[in-house]
Amino acid sequence: MLRRLALALVGGLSLVLAFEPVGASYVVPVSVAAFVLATVGLPASRAWLPGLVFGIAFCYPLMFWMRVVGYDAWAAMSGVEALFLGLLGAVVALLHRLPAWPVWVATAWVAVEQVRTSGPLGGMPWGRLSYATADTPWASALPYVGQAGLGFLLALAGSSLAWLVLGPGRRQRFVAGATAGGALALATLPALAPWTPDTTGHRTVAVVQGNVPGEGDDILLDPRQVTQNHVQATIDLGANIDAGREPRPDFVLWPENSTASDPFLDEGLNLGIETAVDAVGVPVLVGAMVDSGPDHVLNQGIVWTPGVGAGDRYTKWHPVPFGEYIPWRSFFSGNIGRLALIPRDMLSGTRTEPLTVDGTRVADAICFDVAYDDGIHAQLRNGADLLVVQTSNATFIKTDQIEQQFEITRLRAIETGRYVAVASTNGVSGIIAPDGTVVDRAEPRTTAVLVDQVGLSDQVTPAVRIGQWFGRACVAVTVVGLLLALVAYRRPRGEQA
Predict the structure, then answer these.
(1) Angle at 123 between CA 117 and CA 127, to 5 degrees
(2) Which residues pair with 203 in a beta bridge?
(3) Fewer Cβ in 10 A, N or C end of the chain?
(4) 413: which strand partners?
(5) Which pTM does this prediction carry?
(6) Is 495 a catalytic residue?
(7) Catalytic residue among 59, 81, 367, 474
Protein backbone atom coordinates (compact mmCIF):
# COMPACT_ATOMS: atom_id res chain seq x y z
CA MET A 1 0.00 0.00 0.00
CA LEU A 2 2.86 2.40 0.72
CA ARG A 3 4.05 2.11 -2.88
CA ARG A 4 0.55 2.91 -4.10
CA LEU A 5 0.30 5.92 -1.82
CA ALA A 6 3.69 7.15 -3.02
CA LEU A 7 2.60 6.72 -6.65
CA ALA A 8 -0.63 8.60 -5.95
CA LEU A 9 1.32 11.40 -4.28
CA VAL A 10 3.69 11.76 -7.23
CA GLY A 11 0.80 11.55 -9.69
CA GLY A 12 -1.16 14.31 -7.96
CA LEU A 13 1.86 16.61 -7.70
CA SER A 14 2.79 16.02 -11.34
CA LEU A 15 -0.72 16.95 -12.49
CA VAL A 16 -0.30 20.37 -10.86
CA LEU A 17 2.57 20.99 -13.28
CA ALA A 18 0.15 20.74 -16.22
CA PHE A 19 -1.49 24.01 -15.16
CA GLU A 20 -0.16 27.55 -15.01
CA PRO A 21 2.38 28.79 -14.16
CA VAL A 22 4.30 25.73 -15.43
CA GLY A 23 1.92 24.58 -18.16
CA ALA A 24 3.53 21.17 -18.80
CA SER A 25 0.37 19.77 -20.39
CA TYR A 26 2.00 16.56 -21.60
CA VAL A 27 1.99 15.17 -18.05
CA VAL A 28 -1.83 14.93 -17.96
CA PRO A 29 -2.13 11.35 -19.36
CA VAL A 30 0.85 10.23 -17.27
CA SER A 31 -0.72 11.62 -14.09
CA VAL A 32 -4.05 9.95 -14.86
CA ALA A 33 -2.19 6.68 -15.45
CA ALA A 34 -0.51 7.05 -12.05
CA PHE A 35 -3.92 7.52 -10.43
CA VAL A 36 -5.26 4.37 -12.12
CA LEU A 37 -2.22 2.27 -11.27
CA ALA A 38 -2.41 3.38 -7.63
CA THR A 39 -6.04 2.29 -7.28
CA VAL A 40 -6.70 -0.73 -9.54
CA GLY A 41 -6.46 -4.17 -7.98
CA LEU A 42 -7.57 -2.89 -4.57
CA PRO A 43 -11.02 -3.38 -3.05
CA ALA A 44 -13.08 -0.21 -3.19
CA SER A 45 -12.96 -0.06 0.60
CA ARG A 46 -9.21 0.61 0.36
CA ALA A 47 -8.86 2.23 -3.08
CA TRP A 48 -10.35 5.49 -1.85
CA LEU A 49 -7.18 6.14 0.18
CA PRO A 50 -4.67 6.47 -2.71
CA GLY A 51 -7.39 8.40 -4.55
CA LEU A 52 -7.59 10.82 -1.65
CA VAL A 53 -3.79 11.14 -1.46
CA PHE A 54 -3.75 11.97 -5.18
CA GLY A 55 -6.51 14.54 -4.59
CA ILE A 56 -4.69 16.18 -1.69
CA ALA A 57 -1.42 16.33 -3.64
CA PHE A 58 -3.24 17.87 -6.61
CA CYS A 59 -5.88 20.20 -5.15
CA TYR A 60 -3.97 21.87 -2.34
CA PRO A 61 -1.02 23.12 -4.47
CA LEU A 62 -3.23 23.94 -7.48
CA MET A 63 -5.59 26.13 -5.47
CA PHE A 64 -3.00 27.58 -3.09
CA TRP A 65 -4.07 30.99 -4.39
CA MET A 66 -7.17 30.68 -2.19
CA ARG A 67 -4.97 31.33 0.85
CA VAL A 68 -5.29 35.08 0.26
CA VAL A 69 -8.96 34.77 1.18
CA GLY A 70 -7.93 32.78 4.25
CA TYR A 71 -6.00 29.62 5.00
CA ASP A 72 -9.18 28.13 6.44
CA ALA A 73 -11.01 28.80 3.15
CA TRP A 74 -8.12 27.26 1.18
CA ALA A 75 -8.03 24.19 3.42
CA ALA A 76 -11.79 23.67 3.29
CA MET A 77 -12.21 24.17 -0.46
CA SER A 78 -9.19 22.05 -1.42
CA GLY A 79 -10.22 19.34 1.05
CA VAL A 80 -13.70 19.06 -0.43
CA GLU A 81 -12.29 18.80 -3.96
CA ALA A 82 -9.78 16.16 -2.83
CA LEU A 83 -12.63 14.07 -1.41
CA PHE A 84 -14.10 13.77 -4.90
CA LEU A 85 -10.88 12.17 -6.12
CA GLY A 86 -10.96 9.83 -3.13
CA LEU A 87 -14.42 8.76 -4.25
CA LEU A 88 -13.10 8.34 -7.79
CA GLY A 89 -10.43 5.95 -6.48
CA ALA A 90 -13.10 3.63 -5.09
CA VAL A 91 -15.12 3.90 -8.31
CA VAL A 92 -12.09 3.07 -10.49
CA ALA A 93 -11.35 0.00 -8.36
CA LEU A 94 -14.86 -1.30 -9.06
CA LEU A 95 -14.93 -0.44 -12.76
CA HIS A 96 -11.61 -2.21 -13.30
CA ARG A 97 -13.53 -5.50 -13.07
CA LEU A 98 -15.37 -4.76 -16.34
CA PRO A 99 -14.30 -5.47 -19.93
CA ALA A 100 -13.02 -2.34 -21.69
CA TRP A 101 -12.24 -0.89 -18.28
CA PRO A 102 -10.08 2.01 -19.60
CA VAL A 103 -13.20 3.40 -21.27
CA TRP A 104 -15.23 2.99 -18.09
CA VAL A 105 -12.51 4.70 -16.07
CA ALA A 106 -12.37 7.66 -18.48
CA THR A 107 -16.15 7.96 -18.26
CA ALA A 108 -15.98 7.94 -14.47
CA TRP A 109 -13.31 10.65 -14.45
CA VAL A 110 -15.60 12.95 -16.44
CA ALA A 111 -18.55 12.00 -14.24
CA VAL A 112 -16.71 13.08 -11.11
CA GLU A 113 -15.62 16.33 -12.80
CA GLN A 114 -19.26 16.93 -13.73
CA VAL A 115 -20.50 16.32 -10.20
CA ARG A 116 -17.87 18.45 -8.49
CA THR A 117 -18.50 21.25 -11.01
CA SER A 118 -22.18 21.23 -10.06
CA GLY A 119 -21.96 20.95 -6.27
CA PRO A 120 -21.79 21.33 -3.37
CA LEU A 121 -22.62 25.04 -3.06
CA GLY A 122 -22.54 25.56 -6.81
CA GLY A 123 -19.47 23.43 -7.43
CA MET A 124 -15.84 24.21 -8.26
CA PRO A 125 -14.59 23.45 -11.79
CA TRP A 126 -10.93 24.37 -11.17
CA GLY A 127 -8.61 21.54 -12.14
CA ARG A 128 -10.66 19.95 -14.93
CA LEU A 129 -8.23 18.08 -17.19
CA SER A 130 -9.23 20.15 -20.21
CA TYR A 131 -8.19 23.36 -18.46
CA ALA A 132 -4.53 22.38 -18.83
CA THR A 133 -4.51 22.10 -22.63
CA ALA A 134 -3.97 25.62 -24.00
CA ASP A 135 -1.21 25.65 -26.65
CA THR A 136 -1.54 21.90 -27.28
CA PRO A 137 -2.98 19.94 -30.23
CA TRP A 138 -5.61 18.55 -27.82
CA ALA A 139 -7.24 21.99 -27.54
CA SER A 140 -8.32 21.76 -31.19
CA ALA A 141 -10.87 19.14 -30.14
CA LEU A 142 -12.74 21.61 -27.93
CA PRO A 143 -15.16 23.04 -30.55
CA TYR A 144 -16.28 19.49 -31.33
CA VAL A 145 -16.42 17.77 -27.94
CA GLY A 146 -16.33 20.55 -25.35
CA GLN A 147 -14.55 20.62 -22.01
CA ALA A 148 -16.10 17.37 -20.80
CA GLY A 149 -15.41 15.57 -24.09
CA LEU A 150 -11.78 16.64 -24.10
CA GLY A 151 -11.52 15.56 -20.47
CA PHE A 152 -12.77 12.13 -21.54
CA LEU A 153 -10.13 11.84 -24.29
CA LEU A 154 -7.35 12.83 -21.90
CA ALA A 155 -8.57 10.43 -19.21
CA LEU A 156 -8.87 7.68 -21.83
CA ALA A 157 -5.28 8.30 -22.90
CA GLY A 158 -4.18 8.00 -19.28
CA SER A 159 -6.22 4.91 -18.46
CA SER A 160 -5.02 3.24 -21.67
CA LEU A 161 -1.44 4.00 -20.70
CA ALA A 162 -2.12 2.31 -17.34
CA TRP A 163 -3.59 -0.70 -19.22
CA LEU A 164 -0.39 -0.91 -21.25
CA VAL A 165 1.78 -0.83 -18.12
CA LEU A 166 -0.20 -3.55 -16.33
CA GLY A 167 0.96 -6.20 -18.80
CA PRO A 168 -0.54 -9.16 -20.69
CA GLY A 169 -2.34 -10.63 -17.71
CA ARG A 170 -4.64 -7.65 -17.52
CA ARG A 171 -4.73 -6.67 -21.19
CA GLN A 172 -7.14 -9.46 -22.13
CA ARG A 173 -9.84 -7.58 -20.26
CA PHE A 174 -9.78 -4.84 -22.86
CA VAL A 175 -12.36 -5.67 -25.58
CA ALA A 176 -11.16 -7.25 -28.82
CA GLY A 177 -10.19 -4.76 -31.47
CA ALA A 178 -9.28 -1.96 -29.05
CA THR A 179 -5.64 -1.18 -28.48
CA ALA A 180 -3.83 1.27 -26.27
CA GLY A 181 -2.35 2.94 -29.33
CA GLY A 182 -5.81 3.45 -30.79
CA ALA A 183 -7.12 4.91 -27.56
CA LEU A 184 -4.16 7.27 -27.34
CA ALA A 185 -4.74 8.33 -30.93
CA LEU A 186 -8.29 9.38 -29.99
CA ALA A 187 -6.76 12.16 -27.90
CA THR A 188 -5.13 13.82 -30.92
CA LEU A 189 -7.38 12.83 -33.84
CA PRO A 190 -9.65 15.94 -33.67
CA ALA A 191 -6.58 18.14 -34.15
CA LEU A 192 -6.57 17.06 -37.79
CA ALA A 193 -9.65 19.19 -38.50
CA PRO A 194 -9.36 22.56 -36.69
CA TRP A 195 -12.57 24.54 -36.32
CA THR A 196 -12.73 27.64 -38.51
CA PRO A 197 -15.66 29.89 -37.55
CA ASP A 198 -17.54 31.93 -40.12
CA THR A 199 -17.13 35.69 -39.64
CA THR A 200 -20.31 37.74 -39.98
CA GLY A 201 -18.80 41.15 -39.23
CA HIS A 202 -16.30 43.09 -37.17
CA ARG A 203 -16.41 45.43 -34.20
CA THR A 204 -13.80 47.55 -32.49
CA VAL A 205 -13.70 47.02 -28.73
CA ALA A 206 -11.86 49.05 -26.09
CA VAL A 207 -10.89 47.17 -22.92
CA VAL A 208 -10.16 49.36 -19.89
CA GLN A 209 -7.93 48.14 -17.05
CA GLY A 210 -8.00 51.00 -14.55
CA ASN A 211 -5.71 49.49 -11.89
CA VAL A 212 -6.17 49.26 -8.10
CA PRO A 213 -4.53 51.60 -5.55
CA GLY A 214 -2.01 50.55 -2.92
CA GLU A 215 -0.56 47.06 -3.19
CA GLY A 216 -3.19 46.20 -5.78
CA ASP A 217 -4.63 43.24 -3.89
CA ASP A 218 -7.50 44.94 -2.04
CA ILE A 219 -10.33 46.10 -4.26
CA LEU A 220 -12.10 47.66 -1.25
CA LEU A 221 -9.09 49.61 0.03
CA ASP A 222 -10.28 52.67 -1.92
CA PRO A 223 -13.20 51.65 -4.14
CA ARG A 224 -13.94 55.21 -5.25
CA GLN A 225 -10.40 55.53 -6.57
CA VAL A 226 -10.85 52.27 -8.51
CA THR A 227 -13.91 53.76 -10.19
CA GLN A 228 -12.13 57.05 -10.79
CA ASN A 229 -9.23 55.19 -12.42
CA HIS A 230 -11.61 53.63 -14.93
CA VAL A 231 -13.44 56.91 -15.48
CA GLN A 232 -10.18 58.77 -16.13
CA ALA A 233 -8.77 56.08 -18.42
CA THR A 234 -11.98 56.25 -20.46
CA ILE A 235 -11.90 60.05 -20.59
CA ASP A 236 -8.29 59.86 -21.80
CA LEU A 237 -9.39 57.37 -24.45
CA GLY A 238 -12.04 59.85 -25.57
CA ALA A 239 -9.38 62.56 -25.90
CA ASN A 240 -7.19 60.24 -27.98
CA ILE A 241 -10.16 59.43 -30.21
CA ASP A 242 -10.93 63.13 -30.74
CA ALA A 243 -7.25 63.76 -31.56
CA GLY A 244 -7.22 60.93 -34.09
CA ARG A 245 -4.73 58.85 -32.13
CA GLU A 246 -7.19 55.98 -31.59
CA PRO A 247 -10.15 54.73 -33.64
CA ARG A 248 -13.54 55.17 -32.06
CA PRO A 249 -14.61 51.78 -30.67
CA ASP A 250 -18.10 50.37 -31.02
CA PHE A 251 -18.21 49.89 -27.25
CA VAL A 252 -16.00 49.99 -24.18
CA LEU A 253 -15.59 47.16 -21.67
CA TRP A 254 -15.02 47.85 -17.97
CA PRO A 255 -14.23 45.06 -15.48
CA GLU A 256 -16.17 43.58 -12.62
CA ASN A 257 -16.05 45.83 -9.55
CA SER A 258 -15.19 48.90 -11.60
CA THR A 259 -17.72 50.38 -9.19
CA ALA A 260 -18.10 48.58 -5.86
CA SER A 261 -21.12 50.67 -4.84
CA ASP A 262 -24.55 50.99 -6.39
CA PRO A 263 -24.26 53.65 -9.14
CA PHE A 264 -28.01 54.19 -9.00
CA LEU A 265 -27.85 55.29 -5.36
CA ASP A 266 -24.53 57.14 -5.38
CA GLU A 267 -24.83 60.39 -7.36
CA GLY A 268 -21.06 60.89 -7.54
CA LEU A 269 -20.45 57.47 -9.08
CA ASN A 270 -23.35 57.93 -11.46
CA LEU A 271 -21.96 61.28 -12.63
CA GLY A 272 -18.50 59.78 -13.12
CA ILE A 273 -19.86 56.98 -15.31
CA GLU A 274 -21.98 59.42 -17.33
CA THR A 275 -18.93 61.64 -17.87
CA ALA A 276 -16.83 58.71 -19.09
CA VAL A 277 -19.58 57.45 -21.41
CA ASP A 278 -20.08 60.91 -22.91
CA ALA A 279 -16.31 61.30 -23.39
CA VAL A 280 -16.07 58.26 -25.69
CA GLY A 281 -19.51 58.68 -27.22
CA VAL A 282 -20.24 54.93 -27.31
CA PRO A 283 -21.80 52.44 -24.87
CA VAL A 284 -19.74 51.26 -21.90
CA LEU A 285 -20.37 47.85 -20.32
CA VAL A 286 -19.89 48.76 -16.65
CA GLY A 287 -19.18 46.23 -13.89
CA ALA A 288 -21.18 47.30 -10.83
CA MET A 289 -22.47 46.10 -7.48
CA VAL A 290 -26.18 46.87 -7.32
CA ASP A 291 -28.29 46.76 -4.16
CA SER A 292 -31.16 44.28 -4.04
CA GLY A 293 -32.78 45.06 -0.72
CA PRO A 294 -31.07 45.41 2.67
CA ASP A 295 -29.62 41.87 2.74
CA HIS A 296 -28.63 41.16 -0.85
CA VAL A 297 -26.53 42.53 -3.69
CA LEU A 298 -26.22 41.82 -7.43
CA ASN A 299 -22.95 41.62 -9.36
CA GLN A 300 -23.86 43.02 -12.76
CA GLY A 301 -22.61 44.04 -16.15
CA ILE A 302 -24.67 47.09 -17.18
CA VAL A 303 -24.85 48.57 -20.68
CA TRP A 304 -24.51 52.34 -20.23
CA THR A 305 -25.35 54.27 -23.42
CA PRO A 306 -24.65 57.97 -24.13
CA GLY A 307 -27.80 60.07 -23.77
CA VAL A 308 -29.78 57.08 -22.51
CA GLY A 309 -28.08 55.83 -19.36
CA ALA A 310 -28.24 52.34 -17.91
CA GLY A 311 -30.02 49.66 -19.90
CA ASP A 312 -29.49 45.95 -20.53
CA ARG A 313 -27.93 43.97 -17.65
CA TYR A 314 -26.28 40.62 -16.99
CA THR A 315 -26.07 39.26 -13.43
CA LYS A 316 -23.28 36.91 -12.35
CA TRP A 317 -24.43 33.28 -12.40
CA HIS A 318 -21.92 31.80 -9.95
CA PRO A 319 -21.21 33.88 -6.82
CA VAL A 320 -18.41 32.43 -4.68
CA PRO A 321 -19.52 30.82 -1.39
CA PHE A 322 -17.85 32.36 1.67
CA GLY A 323 -16.44 35.03 -0.63
CA GLU A 324 -19.57 36.67 -2.06
CA TYR A 325 -22.25 35.03 0.03
CA ILE A 326 -22.36 33.00 3.24
CA PRO A 327 -24.24 29.69 3.20
CA TRP A 328 -25.97 28.96 6.51
CA ARG A 329 -25.16 32.52 7.55
CA SER A 330 -26.66 32.24 11.03
CA PHE A 331 -24.09 29.59 11.97
CA PHE A 332 -20.93 30.63 10.11
CA SER A 333 -21.07 34.40 10.58
CA GLY A 334 -21.13 33.92 14.33
CA ASN A 335 -18.17 31.52 14.37
CA ILE A 336 -15.74 32.96 11.83
CA GLY A 337 -15.10 36.63 12.47
CA ARG A 338 -13.64 37.32 9.02
CA LEU A 339 -17.05 36.67 7.48
CA ALA A 340 -18.28 39.88 9.04
CA LEU A 341 -16.62 41.52 6.01
CA ILE A 342 -19.48 40.06 3.92
CA PRO A 343 -22.53 41.82 5.37
CA ARG A 344 -24.82 40.94 2.45
CA ASP A 345 -25.29 37.87 0.26
CA MET A 346 -24.83 38.06 -3.49
CA LEU A 347 -27.74 36.62 -5.48
CA SER A 348 -27.24 34.43 -8.56
CA GLY A 349 -28.29 35.49 -12.04
CA THR A 350 -30.24 33.37 -14.49
CA ARG A 351 -30.08 35.35 -17.74
CA THR A 352 -29.72 33.18 -20.85
CA GLU A 353 -30.13 35.89 -23.51
CA PRO A 354 -27.06 37.83 -24.69
CA LEU A 355 -26.78 41.54 -23.99
CA THR A 356 -27.40 43.95 -26.83
CA VAL A 357 -24.63 46.55 -26.97
CA ASP A 358 -25.21 49.05 -29.78
CA GLY A 359 -26.58 46.29 -32.01
CA THR A 360 -23.94 43.68 -31.08
CA ARG A 361 -25.20 40.59 -29.25
CA VAL A 362 -22.71 39.94 -26.45
CA ALA A 363 -22.42 36.96 -24.10
CA ASP A 364 -21.14 38.11 -20.72
CA ALA A 365 -19.32 36.14 -18.02
CA ILE A 366 -18.31 37.69 -14.71
CA CYS A 367 -15.10 36.35 -13.12
CA PHE A 368 -15.52 32.67 -12.09
CA ASP A 369 -18.48 32.34 -14.51
CA VAL A 370 -15.90 31.71 -17.24
CA ALA A 371 -14.98 28.37 -15.65
CA TYR A 372 -18.57 27.07 -15.85
CA ASP A 373 -20.27 25.83 -19.02
CA ASP A 374 -23.90 26.74 -18.36
CA GLY A 375 -24.27 30.52 -18.62
CA ILE A 376 -21.86 30.98 -21.51
CA HIS A 377 -23.37 28.16 -23.56
CA ALA A 378 -26.91 29.41 -22.97
CA GLN A 379 -26.11 32.90 -24.25
CA LEU A 380 -24.27 31.57 -27.31
CA ARG A 381 -27.10 29.21 -28.20
CA ASN A 382 -29.39 32.24 -28.06
CA GLY A 383 -27.41 34.17 -30.64
CA ALA A 384 -24.38 35.87 -29.03
CA ASP A 385 -21.78 36.97 -31.60
CA LEU A 386 -19.02 37.84 -29.14
CA LEU A 387 -17.93 36.78 -25.64
CA VAL A 388 -16.71 39.20 -22.97
CA VAL A 389 -15.35 38.49 -19.50
CA GLN A 390 -15.57 41.09 -16.72
CA THR A 391 -13.37 40.11 -13.82
CA SER A 392 -11.86 41.53 -10.64
CA ASN A 393 -8.86 39.40 -9.74
CA ALA A 394 -7.27 41.99 -7.49
CA THR A 395 -7.57 39.69 -4.47
CA PHE A 396 -5.47 37.10 -6.31
CA ILE A 397 -3.18 39.47 -8.23
CA LYS A 398 -0.03 38.15 -6.51
CA THR A 399 -0.93 34.49 -7.06
CA ASP A 400 -1.12 32.00 -9.95
CA GLN A 401 -4.91 32.32 -10.09
CA ILE A 402 -4.88 35.15 -12.61
CA GLU A 403 -2.88 33.16 -15.17
CA GLN A 404 -4.93 30.00 -14.56
CA GLN A 405 -8.15 31.93 -15.19
CA PHE A 406 -6.75 33.56 -18.32
CA GLU A 407 -5.81 30.11 -19.64
CA ILE A 408 -9.39 28.92 -19.05
CA THR A 409 -10.60 32.00 -20.93
CA ARG A 410 -8.37 31.18 -23.90
CA LEU A 411 -9.83 27.67 -23.97
CA ARG A 412 -13.34 29.14 -23.92
CA ALA A 413 -12.46 31.11 -27.06
CA ILE A 414 -11.42 27.89 -28.81
CA GLU A 415 -14.42 25.92 -27.57
CA THR A 416 -16.98 28.56 -28.57
CA GLY A 417 -15.34 29.74 -31.80
CA ARG A 418 -15.60 33.34 -30.58
CA TYR A 419 -13.34 36.29 -29.99
CA VAL A 420 -13.15 37.03 -26.28
CA ALA A 421 -12.52 40.44 -24.71
CA VAL A 422 -11.36 40.33 -21.08
CA ALA A 423 -11.41 43.34 -18.76
CA SER A 424 -9.84 43.00 -15.31
CA THR A 425 -9.39 45.70 -12.68
CA ASN A 426 -5.62 45.16 -12.66
CA GLY A 427 -4.89 41.95 -14.57
CA VAL A 428 -5.09 39.93 -16.70
CA SER A 429 -6.92 41.92 -19.41
CA GLY A 430 -6.70 41.02 -23.08
CA ILE A 431 -8.21 40.16 -26.45
CA ILE A 432 -8.24 36.51 -27.52
CA ALA A 433 -8.90 35.12 -31.01
CA PRO A 434 -11.10 32.04 -31.67
CA ASP A 435 -8.00 29.84 -32.00
CA GLY A 436 -6.83 30.84 -28.51
CA THR A 437 -4.18 33.28 -29.74
CA VAL A 438 -3.69 36.29 -27.48
CA VAL A 439 -4.14 39.26 -29.82
CA ASP A 440 -3.47 41.90 -27.17
CA ARG A 441 -2.74 41.87 -23.46
CA ALA A 442 -2.24 44.42 -20.69
CA GLU A 443 0.46 43.98 -18.07
CA PRO A 444 -0.87 43.21 -14.58
CA ARG A 445 -0.95 46.03 -12.00
CA THR A 446 -0.95 48.75 -14.65
CA THR A 447 -3.46 51.19 -16.09
CA ALA A 448 -4.03 50.27 -19.72
CA VAL A 449 -6.55 50.64 -22.54
CA LEU A 450 -6.58 48.07 -25.34
CA VAL A 451 -8.33 49.03 -28.58
CA ASP A 452 -8.66 46.16 -31.06
CA GLN A 453 -10.86 44.94 -33.86
CA VAL A 454 -12.62 41.63 -33.21
CA GLY A 455 -14.59 39.33 -35.47
CA LEU A 456 -18.21 38.36 -34.90
CA SER A 457 -19.69 34.92 -35.52
CA ASP A 458 -23.19 33.48 -35.17
CA GLN A 459 -21.98 29.91 -35.77
CA VAL A 460 -22.66 27.59 -32.84
CA THR A 461 -20.00 24.92 -32.32
CA PRO A 462 -21.00 21.30 -31.67
CA ALA A 463 -19.53 21.66 -28.17
CA VAL A 464 -21.90 24.51 -27.34
CA ARG A 465 -24.86 22.60 -28.77
CA ILE A 466 -23.99 19.56 -26.64
CA GLY A 467 -23.54 21.75 -23.57
CA GLN A 468 -23.46 19.77 -20.34
CA TRP A 469 -25.22 16.71 -21.74
CA PHE A 470 -22.03 14.75 -22.36
CA GLY A 471 -20.95 15.22 -18.75
CA ARG A 472 -24.38 14.26 -17.49
CA ALA A 473 -24.40 11.18 -19.72
CA CYS A 474 -21.07 10.15 -18.21
CA VAL A 475 -22.64 10.33 -14.75
CA ALA A 476 -25.47 8.04 -15.86
CA VAL A 477 -23.14 5.60 -17.64
CA THR A 478 -20.85 5.45 -14.61
CA VAL A 479 -23.79 4.52 -12.39
CA VAL A 480 -24.66 1.72 -14.82
CA GLY A 481 -21.03 0.58 -14.84
CA LEU A 482 -20.93 0.43 -11.05
CA LEU A 483 -24.08 -1.70 -10.99
CA LEU A 484 -22.57 -4.06 -13.57
CA ALA A 485 -19.33 -4.26 -11.59
CA LEU A 486 -21.20 -5.10 -8.39
CA VAL A 487 -23.19 -7.81 -10.18
CA ALA A 488 -19.97 -9.28 -11.62
CA TYR A 489 -18.42 -9.24 -8.16
CA ARG A 490 -21.32 -11.07 -6.51
CA ARG A 491 -21.85 -13.66 -9.29
CA PRO A 492 -20.67 -17.14 -8.28
CA ARG A 493 -17.29 -17.98 -9.82
CA GLY A 494 -18.72 -20.87 -11.84
CA GLU A 495 -21.28 -18.60 -13.54
CA GLN A 496 -18.79 -16.07 -14.82
CA ALA A 497 -18.32 -15.92 -18.56
Answers:
(1) 50
(2) 454
(3) C
(4) none
(5) 0.93
(6) no
(7) 367
